[in-house]
Design brief:
Helix content: 40-55%
CATH topology of the largest domain: Rossmann fold
Largest sheet: 5 strands, parallel
Distance between the termini: 10 Å
CATH superfamily of the largest domain: HAD superfamily/HAD-like
Oligomer: single chain
CATH class of the largest domain: Alpha Beta
Number of domains: 2
Amino acid sequence: MPLKPQLVLDAGGVLLTNLGSFWRSLAELAGTPFDELRARYRREMRGPLWSGGISEPDFWAWLSAAWPGLDIASARQALLDSMKPLPALNHLQAWSSLADLHILSNHRAEWLLPQLDHRIRLFSGITISSEAGFFKPDPRIYETAAAKIPPGAPVLFVDDHPDNLRAAETFGWHTLLADEADSGWTEQVEPLLRRLG
């Protein structure tokens, strides 16, 4: 009997909006140019934040030290406001009848899991970079996710970054590029899963 397909979904840009508006709001709240804030974040904080190398409180402390005038309560609210549901969330129930669902996301578990709330029960495996210790496209996070998948099962991986898809393909996974601005990609999922089943 063939193994059930496995549908592995990124979160930001696939299930929820990416955090782009959060960084823009932060720059506005901090009174600093967006490019300057993003450059400093990438240089000092990106790796530790997404890999779980620091705690979530450490991130807010870093922001406070880097931009002393920044109101952290407003920054936290900007983060929550930036994570809006995308249309793919409405397809999860239907997709779960065709495949086992998984999440593989560069995110903070503290931020992501509450946003998925009652939908968590639909997922067989959840791999979040802040818990895994690595972030895409590092092969080690794919290995962590693959350990939650039945050996030999066909996998369809959906992500909004081509580099992450290329890394997944080295594991023999089928891939689909998502587009946050155009949910048309969601119509391709069921036919692809049926072909893999």
